[in-house]
Write a structure and sequence with these properties.
The chain is of the alpha+beta class. It is 45% helix and 19% strand. Bound molecules: zinc ion (ZN). Zinc ion (ZN) binds next to helix 1. The site of zinc ion has 7 residues, from helix 1.
Length: 58
């Protein structure tokens, strides 16, 4: 089973979707995207929680 996360669940209006084999890989992609697309330099525990809540098994 793979993991998928829609950025729109955390940042409304963003059409980015991350997809990876593991949650760890997915978090790396999301962190990278957050930096590049949203200027988010630091993933706070609160933000990480939001991201993890948005992760789906696909
Ligand atoms: Zn985004």
């Amino acid at each position: 089973m793979a993991k998928q996360m829609s950025c729109a669940d955390v940042v409304p209006g963003c059409d980015y979707t991350a997809w990876a084999e593991t949650e760890e890989e997915l978090m790396e992609l999301v962190v990278e995207h957050a930096k590049m697309a949203h200027g988010i330099q630091e993933i706070t525990p609160e933000l990480q929680e939001q991201v993890q809540a948005a992760i789906r098994d696909v």
